[in-house]
Specification:
With 348 residues, this protein is an alpha/beta fold. The longest helix is centred in the C-terminal third of the chain and has 23 residues.
């Protein structure tokens, strides 16, 4: 299935049905009076986060969604039927933006979240509604209200607990394949990963979701390489695992390139907890690794982990470290959700 994380669609809710102008006419009944029914309500347009979807590819082939008009009123006080709603089903984590692609309307971050993006028009009143003591035979009815129409952007941000960052060929896909059942494309050339990948990592009896996004290069915030388009998929992560190819000429420069692009993209994302790891340690002798490790500590004031995605050396320890940060974040979120809630019985 092709991955698509952004789509522009047109939605229009249904118009309300028109009210009816009718008069009761039956044999042997004089002055039957008005009996025009009301029109039905037009259909709404909803967006709902459902299970089983991980892409917006369905909206590549259909961009227009229009709800039906409500039924028109009829004589004998018969009201028109309400029109059915239209539901746009999207993956969990989808955000809805206005046509300018900047103003967010809704964030469907949980399974079952629903949002009405366009309200259907109300049906018009029939002439029976306007009958009064001074107007015994009204000869007018209301038309139905018009529905709403708008262009919107759907933007998917994958729901993951941890995210992988690094330059192209830092070994992110190899690591994801080693710790989960995901099968990303792996090759010895840059940009083998062209769209985000998700994998479920199990650590003992617990598990978390790890996201791998295409590699960043210097100038990504200006559109170089694949740009920063896919960074949105790690915005919801609790922790970032920054992989650095230890066989590169200057690991410090590689680290600073990614940090600079993160800050340009989003200061909030750059401020997330980060675990740094030197990858591909199986390709260098220990003295070479130690020299680069000392240089990194001296210039960056941080100590990276030493791992190898190919041989899984120290990879379980790295996953446990990620899980520790994720667990703390989950507990903090639960405490925040329960803030202000008391179980004590209220007494006057």
């Amino acid at each position: 299935m092709k991955f698509l994380d952004q789509a522009k669609v047109y939605v229009r809710s249904g118009d309300g049905g028109a009210g009816s102008v009718s008069f009761r006419r039956e044999k042997f009944i004089e002055m039957g009076g008005p009996d025009g029914g009301d029109g039905g309500k037009g259909g709404d347009v909803w967006i709902e986060a459902v299970d089983g979807l991980n892409t917006l590819i369905d909206y590549r082939y259909q961009q227009h969604f229009k709800a039906a008009t409500g039924g028109h009123g009829m004589g004998r006080l018969r009201a028109g039927a309400n029109s059915g709603d239209i539901v746009l089903k999207v993956p969990v984590g989808t955000q809805v933006f206005e046509e300018d692609n900047e103003t967010m309307v809704a964030d469907l971050a949980r399974l079952g979240d629903r949002f009405r993006i366009a309200r259907g028009g109300n049906g018009g009143f029939g002439n029976a509604h306007f009958k009064s003591s001074t107007n015994r035979a009204p000869r007018h009815a209301n038309p139905g209200q018009e529905g709403e129409e708008r262009w919107i952007w759907l933007r998917l941000k994958l729901i993951a607990d941890a995210g992988l960052l690094g330059l192209p060929n830092a070994g992110k896909s190899t690591l994801l394949a080693a710790v989960s059942a995901a099968k990303p494309k792996i090759a010895d050339y840059p940009f083998t990963t062209l769209h985000p990948q998700l994998g479920v990592v199990r650590v003992g009896m617990q598990s978390f979701v790890l996201a791998d996004i295409p590699g960043l290069i210097e100038g990504a915030s200006e559109g170089h390489g694949l740009g920063t388009r896919f960074l949105g998929h790690v915005e919801r992560c609790a922790v970032l695992l920054h992989l650095i190819d230890v066989t590169g000429d200057d690991p410090v420069a590689a680290y600073r390139v990614i940090r600079k692009e993160l800050k340009r993209y989003s200061p909030e994302l750059a401020g997330k907890p980060e675990i740094i790891a030197f990858n591909k340690t199986d390709l260098l002798p220990e003295n070479g690794i130690e020299a680069k490790l000392r240089d990194f500590r001296r210039r960056v004031r941080k100590t990276p982990m030493l791992i190898s995605g190919a041989t899984t050396k120290n990879v379980p320890e790295a996953m446990k470290k990620l899980l520790g940060v994720i667990g703390a974040s989950r507990r903090a979120g639960q405490a925040h959700d329960g803030a202000g809630v008391t179980t004590e019985e209220w007494r006057p």
